[in-house]
Design brief:
It is a single chain. The chain contains four helices and four strands. It is about 40% helix and about 15% strand. It has a four-stranded mixed beta sheet with strand order 3-2-1-4.
């Protein structure tokens, strides 16, 4: 049975790269178009573990497309590499009601997302 996603978390992870803000903006605006709540996760996996979430809408991403880096900040997380760290992150996402995740980053970010899956 397919489940409808109602809340999406978006995060940037690893080193900053060109286009991260544009990608965040695209996710937030697409969520707004489809009436899906969108939450930015500050500081990547580290922020996920800490529950550092902020609700975002089209206004919160106004004017970021031409800024460098990422408005959500980016960090690497040693704690997320542990089973206990991932369990904390999962608990925070569930408590916030986030049922979908968009990870913007590189190889390490996607490896973390696949392990988290």
């Amino acid at each position: 049975m397919l489940r409808t996603i109602k809340k999406i978390g978006v995060m940037t992870s690893g080193g900053d790269a060109p286009g991260m803000n544009a990608a965040v903006r695209s996710v937030v605006r697409t969520c707004a178009f489809h009436n899906i709540e969108c939450y930015g996760i500050y500081r990547g996996y580290e922020g996920m573990i800490d529950g550092d979430f902020v609700q975002m809408d089209a206004r919160s991403v106004k004017g970021i497309i031409n800024k460098g880096g990422t408005i959500l900040k980016s960090a690497r997380s040693e704690e997320f590499r542990t089973k206990e760290g991932r369990a904390k992150a999962h608990k925070e996402l569930k408590e916030a009601g986030i049922d979908g995740l968009v990870v913007i980053g590189g190889d390490g970010s996607f490896t973390g997302a696949m392990i988290f899956n």
